[in-house]
UniProtKB/TrEMBL annotation, chains A, B:
Domain Nudix hydrolase: 40-173
Name of this chain's protein: NUDIX hydrolase
Cofactor: Mg(2+)
Family of the protein in this entry: Belongs to the Nudix hydrolase family.
EC number(s) given by UniProt: 3.6.-.-
Keyword Hydrolase carried by entry: yes
Keyword Hydrolase set for record: yes
C-alpha cells in the first residue's frame, strides 16, 4: 500500500528530545511538485483497560502540560526500544495503579496511529479483567504525579460528556467497552 | 481541574511550521523538582463520518508521510483559526468526497485530544447520514492526493484487522458506529 507515495528528497532533523524528535522532509508529490512534511517521531505507546471484579475501570488523573489541565486516562506509557507491547502494558499497569496481571490475562484490543498527519506515534490497547493487587508498590517515573480514579462505564460516559475524560485512547476504550458489551453485567 | 499543576518557568520555541509548532517548556513539578516538557502545538482538527443511504461509510485513502504508507480514514482536516468545527466538517466533506450536507444534519459525536502527553491537538468528530452529491467538485488542497473508499461497517472492521484502517479518529468512529447501533439496519 504505497498509493500516492511521496518521495523523500531530503530530511532535516529539527529537534531530538526525550519523548519526541521532529524532522522536516522535503518531498516530491505524485504530480511532481515539491512540498514539505513536518514529522514528529515517537517510540509508540501502550495503554491498558483494567477492570475490577466489581466492573470498575481503573484510570489515572494526571496533569497534562500541553493542555494545561488534568484529565482522566486509562493507564498508559511509552514503549521502550525493542519491548513487546504486552510487557509495557503490564509495567504501566503496575507503576500507575498498583495492580498487576499475567500476560495470558491480557486481551489485545486494537492499535492505531494517534495523529497520522504529522506523527508516527502508534498506540496499542489491551484489556484485562483479571487484576491482582501488588503487595509492594513499584517505583514510578519521578516526574509523574497521578491519582487513581475508578468508574463504572456509565460514570465514564458522564465524565466524557464533562470532558474530564477527553483523549483518543480513553474515549476509544470506553466506546470499545460499550460496543463489546464486556461491562454489560457491571 | 489543575491537579498536580506544573508551573512554567520558561518556554523556548524550537520550530514554527505550517502544521505544527514545537516548544520546550521548563516546568516546576508539584514536588519542586524541575523538568522539561516537549509540546507540539496544533490548531486542532475535525473529522466527519459520512454515511450513504445504502449504509456505506465514505472514507478516503491517502499517503501519510509519517507512516510511509497509505491508510483509509474518515474525511478530516485542520480547523482554521476562529472557525467553528461544524464549518470545517462540511468543508472537508466537500473537498475530500464531493458530497455535502447541511449544518442541521450534522450530529456532534465527540471530541478528544489525540496525544495529550506531547501535543495539544484536539479532534472533533461529527456524523451525518444526510448526504447530497455536489454538482461541481470543490478545489482541494494542492498537496493532497486522495482516493474515495466506501465500506459498510463489517468491511470497515475487516479493514481495521488488516490495519488498512489504522488511526485514532477512524477506529474510534467505527467503534462508535458499532456501539450506537446507527448502522445496524445497513
Amino acid at each position: 500500500m504505497k498509493k500516492f507515495e511521496e518521495k523523500t528528497l531530503n530530511t532535516k532533523e529539527i529537534y531530538n528530545g526525550k519523548i519526541i524528535r521532529l524532522q522536516v522532509d522535503e518531498v516530491e508529490l505524485p504530480d511532481g511538485k515539491i512540498s514539505k512534511r513536518e514529522i514528529v517521531k515517537h517510540q509508540g505507546a501502550v495503554a491498558i483497560i483494567p477492570v475490577t471484579d466489581e466492573g470498575k475501570i481503573i484510570m489515572v488523573e494526571q496533569f497534562r502540560k500541553p493542555l494545561e489541565k488534568s484529565i482522566i486516562e486509562i493507564p498508559a506509557g511509552k514503549l521502550e526500544a525493542g519491548e513487546s507491547p504486552d510487557v509495557t502494558a503490564i509495567r504501566e499497569l503496575e507503576e500507575e495503579t498498583g495492580y498487576t496481571t499475567k500476560r495470558e490475562n491480557l486481551v489485545f484490543v486494537d492499535s492505531f496511529y494517534t495523529s497520522p498527519g504529522f506523527a508516527d506515534e502508534i498506540m496499542y490497547i489491551y484489556f484485562t479483567d483479571k487484576l491482582e493487587k501488588l503487595e509492594e508498590p513499584v517505583e514510578v517515573d519521578d516526574d509523574e504525579f497521578l491519582e487513581l480514579v475508578e468508574m463504572n462505564l456509565e460514570e465514564a460516559f458522564e465524565a466524557m460528556k464533562e470532558q474530564r475524560i477527553h483523549d483518543a485512547k480513553t474515549n476509544y476504550a470506553m466506546m470499545y467497552l460499550k460496543a463489546s458489551g464486556r461491562l454489560s453485567n457491571a
